[in-house]
Specification:
The protein is 48% helix and 11% strand. It is an alpha/beta fold and 332 residues long. The longest helix has 23 residues.
């Protein structure tokens, strides 16, 4: 075992050292990471949801600096346009556009997919980053709990609608920003959506993130042969407006140790740009390394093949879309 592996294992065991800026700084230095500035994404089309603040904006800014053609997705068109204008000025990349869409509204997701397909003849990277932690239950237009709709069902639908374009652009990537909070949650279908009476925002968020990670692996198993790489990741504990608003006590106590948004977005950009992620599929990452998706026996025991099949079917039924593999071209 290399020295870097030993040190990483020591850092990974206690969550505080692994998820905070401490783990990021040690790993970056120890493994001599390639600077994100060195990647060239000219000619590559990237769609990124939740792009106007926090981790999404940090990732979008760096992807723009790398030369990517960016489609930024946020719920508010005016805010999107402001973000685009500011990003063009700060990065010098004018190949940035926006589409206003709420990923928890499936009609808007369909419109988003149509816009992407109409405007771009290729799609190299689809990034699911949109999502928020709220302390009260809200419902999406179809009645699904909003966290589940925007972070589980909506991304599933968008991936399915863009699957053929992704396959035609292979090797392509679908990246899902999850959360370390999912380590506390079991995989569940019957209790995926919390009721208003029992609602706890952090717990609902963790359940949705657990479902994301399971679905990521299923996408890789079922559609990886198309040349699409599906990867999920978590950013560690980062100082973002969303964390400040939803978890003020946590943010205050952990403040000095929280990662910057740029540090939290580092692995996301790396997964979009580096060749290493093309060598595997369906993995879960933190700080440019593959990680186990379970830390507790209880969550591992909940993650059965039967539950995975049921959650796939439930999400497909809820979204109204059952993904089928694109037709393979005839061999010459």
């Amino acid at each position: 075992m290399k020295a870097a592996d030993v040190v990483d294992a020591v850092i990974e065991a206690p969550v505080v050292t692994s998820f905070t800026r401490v783990g990021f700084a040690v790993r970056k230095r120890l493994e001599n990471w390639t600077s994100l500035e060195e990647y060239d994404l000219n000619g590559q089309v990237v769609v990124l949801t939740g792009a106007t603040s926090g981790l999404g904006r940090a990732a979008a800014t760096q992807l723009a600096r790398c030369g990517a053609t960016l489609v930024l997705v946020g719920r508010n068109a005016d805010r999107n346009e402001t973000t685009v204008a500011e990003m063009i000025v700060s990065t010098g990349n004018d190949a940035i556009t926006q589409v206003a869409a709420d990923i928890g509204d499936y009609d808007q997701v369909r419109t988003l997919a149509e816009r992407v397909l109409n405007d771009h003849d290729r799609l190299d990277v689809l990034i699911h980053n949109a999502g928020a932690l709220t302390n009260e239950r809200h419902d999406a237009p179809d009645g699904t709990e909003a966290t589940v709709a925007s972070q589980v069902v909506g991304p599933f639908l968008l991936t399915g609608l863009l699957l053929e374009r992704l396959a035609g652009s292979a090797p392509s990537r679908v990246l899902t920003m999850s959360s370390g909070g999912m380590y506390t949650a079991a995989l569940t279908i019957s209790e995926l959506e919390m009721s208003a009476d029992d609602y706890k925002g952090a717990e609902q968020y963790a359940r949705a993130k657990r479902a994301q990670v399971a679905l990521n692996e299923l996408w890789a198993q079922r559609f990886g042969h198309l040349g699409i790489r599906f990867h999920a990741l978590h950013p560690g504990w980062a100082d973002t407006p969303g964390v400040d608003a939803a978890l003020p006590t946590f943010s205050k106590v952990m403040g000095p140790l929280l990662r910057t948004a740029e540090q939290g977005a580092d692995t996301l950009v790396w997964l979009a740009a580096d060749d290493t992620p093309l060598e595997s599929n369906g993995q879960f990452w933190l700080d440019r390394r593959q990680r186990n998706i379970h830390k507790l026996r209880s969550t591992r025991n909940s993650d059965t093949a039967d539950r995975r099949e049921r959650i796939w079917n439930w999400v497909a039924e809820t979204s109204g879309f059952h993904p089928a593999a694109p037709a393979q071209p005839e061999s010459s």
